[in-house]
Every structure is written in C-alpha cells, then in structure tokens.
Amino acid sequence: MKVILSNRMEAFKPSIFSELAAYKRKKLEEGCAIIDLSIGSPDMPPPAFVTDILANSAGNGNEYGYSLAGTEELHKAISDYYVNTYGVTLQQSQEVLMLMGSQDGLVHLPMVFANPGDYILVPDPGYTAYATGIAMAGAVPYLMPLQKKNDFLPDLSLIPEDVAKRSKLMILNFPGNPVPAMANDVFFSEVIAFAKQYNIIVVHDFAYSELYFEGKKPISFLSVSGAKDVGIEINSLSKSFNMAGCRIGYAIGNEKIIAALGQLKSNLDYGVFYPIQQAAAKALREGAQFCEESRRMYERRRDILIDGLEALGWKVDKPAGSMFIWGEIPNGWSSLDFVYALIDRANVVVTPGHAFGPSGEGFVRIALVQTEEKLRLALQNIQKSGIFN
Ligand SMILES: Cc1ncc(COP(=O)(O)O)c(C=O)c1O
C-alpha cells in the first residue's frame, strides 16, 4: 500500500539533531574517538537512595497497575519541596499535576489553550519541544529574540500589539536551554503585567532549577506576586536528580490551567509507574545534598572547559546556571560549518545554535555531559586541530 503522511507531518521532518546523530554514528564506525558534548542528558546516575527505592519497589508485584494521576505521596513531596526551596505554597490537590517528564506538559499545553492560527510566544533560541507542541496544535510561534544586550531576556516591548492580542501562551525558560540566562523579579513582574493586559497564559519551564553556580539560585516564577493568576511552572526530575529516563516531572500553579491540562492528559495516558513516583518523592524530600554536589560537579566542568577554551583563544561567557555553555563562534563561521569542522578536525560534537531558532545562528551549545578527563581530552583535540588559528 501507499503510506501517505498527514499534512501535519510537514512540521516533523528529520531535524538537524538526527542529521548530526547519523554523522556521529558514521564517524564512530570509522573508528573515531568521538567526544559528544551535544546532548543534554545527564551522564551521572541518580543518588543511590533513589535507585534503591526504585529497585525495591519494582520487586513488589502490587505496584504494576495503572497509576492514572500522581499519588498523594508525590503531590505532597512536590508541595513540600516548593515551600522549602522557593517559599511557594501549593494546594497539592488542585495546583499540582504529575507529568511524564516536563516534555509531556510542554508539548500538550498548546493543544489545550490555542486554536489553529493563534499565536504562542516563544524564546528564540529556545528548547525545540516548544515548536513541536505549537505545530501539533496548529498554532503559530511568535519568536521573542534572546539577545546578549538584554541579558538574554525577551524584550516584551517588541511584541506587536496585534500579536499580543492574538497570543494564548507565552513560554519562558530560565535557567535556559540553549541560552543559560537567568530571570529576575523585575522581569517576571513585567511578564505578569503583560500577561494580565493581554490575557496570555505564562508557562515557565524550570527544568534546570537546581543547576546553578556561585550561589546564584534561580527564582521560581511562582514566587513572584501575581504569577499564580496568570500561569504555571513546569519542573522535572530529569536534570536535577539525573532521572531523565524515568520520565517524571510536574506542572504547578494556576488551578484552572492545571485542571485543563489534567483533563487532556486523562484522555492520553495512564500515569507513571508507581515505583518511579516513589523514587521521585524520595528525591524531592532528601535530595538537597545531592543537588549541591551535582552543582559543584557541573561548575568544575564549566570552569575546565571555559578556561581551556579561553587559553585556546575562544572567549566564552561563564553561565550562572544550567548544564550548557552558549558560545559565540569566532572568525565568522556559520554554526553548521563550525560544528562539522569540529567533528572532522577534533572529534568533538556540539550543537549548532540555529537548531534552536534563527537567533542561534553564529553560536553553538556545548553540553557539560562528559567527565573532567574527557573535557580535557576535548580541549587537547581542539588545540591540535588548530581550528582557532
Ligand atoms: C529546557 C528544557 N525543558 C524541558 C526538557 C524536557 O525534559 P524532561 O521531559 O526530561 O523533563 C528539556 C530537556 O532537555 C529541556 O532542556
């Protein structure tokens, strides 16, 4: 038979990420010792007290039913974590929704609130799942450029009035991926005023909330006055507790928004495996020390790489948070040419900035997902390649 794809699939063509993955595979087959700094998946395990709970609980045959929604234990752990970590109080029954990773919430939210043709305001460059959700809903992305001169915060005054009036959602992400920017109270207050003026729902993606350096702890959107009137925050255990493969996250905040997302999800999935929920609750309750150690590890990696690159003649800003470095490429290379040259000459894979939106052209994203030893090796390879000479 002839397999015919829907028009919608036009939006889901193979991406630059799959192209790069194929090129990397080819290089590995040729015997190249590739050092992959492209994918934002933590390379370290979760804390042992989390894997222990998961292993023990997985041995209990009673834990294998559909879980449907999050358990009371998990909702309580999320509420307690937020009050202890950010001073944000949540009504656990109405203001907390378990997700199968934050991706689950991010890709489904546009379908809940936007009709085809409505605008959704997104950061450019921004995490690619935002575009996926927008395409699934038939909505239209309106790109908010993140520029260095504005500390990589979107300039709301540049959003045209007619776009603001037809916008249903604004998606924000601090500390960000790929741009490791940090928000502040003043900016979030402006966002809240803007959202109230135009009746726009704000979604703050806080997936990197626990990854920050030099004590510069990011603020929760919900800690800012008026935030719960206009929006929600989405958080995840993927990066904070190295549980990316467990697919566990949550949305919190405005109860009507949470209820609407929950309504869609009740038609889509049957919840998360109970042992994973138990492990997540344990991580949120007892993970503070682990997060501190994890931050120190990423900070050491950040310093090794950035100091090393500077010694080779590439000056890159040190991020205050996240697990990424956002580097402006010297010598007028395009993002893609530079990335392929780095693979060919130094066996190092990074992600071209334009993969995250047009404002990413001229930049690359480097993920700190290899050991210090591997990072040093990557630096040696780059030096030998002479790419900056
Ligand atoms: C900014 C951002 N948000 C959300 C996610 C999705 O994470 P998860 O679905 O594992 O919670 C990622 C993953 O890389 C991300 O970088």
Plain-language structure description:
It is a single chain. It contains 13 helices and 12 strands. It is of the alpha/beta class and 389 residues long. The strands form 3 sheets. A 7-stranded mixed sheet has the order 2-8-7-6-5-3-4, with helices on both faces. Strands 9-12-11 form a 3-stranded antiparallel sheet. Helix 5 (129-137) links the parallel strand 3 and strand 4 (140-145). Helix 2 packs antiparallel against helix 10 (274-286), helix 4 (102-113) runs parallel beside helix 5 and helix 11 runs parallel beside helix 13. The longest helix is centred in the C-terminal third of the chain and has 24 residues, at 288-311. Pyridoxal-5'-phosphate binds next to helix 4.
Secondary structure layout:
Elements: H1 16-29, E1 35-36, H2 48-58, H3 72-86, E2 96-99, H4 102-113, E3 119-124, H5 129-137, E4 140-145, H6 161-165, E5 167-173, H7 185-198, E6 201-205, H8 227-230, E7 231-236, E8 249-253, H9 255-266, H10 274-286, H11 288-311, E9 324-328, H12 335-346, E10 348-349, E11 351-352, E12 363-367, H13 372-385
Parallel strand pairs: 1-10, 3-4, 3-5, 5-6, 6-7
Antiparallel strand pairs: 2-8, 7-8, 9-12, 11-12
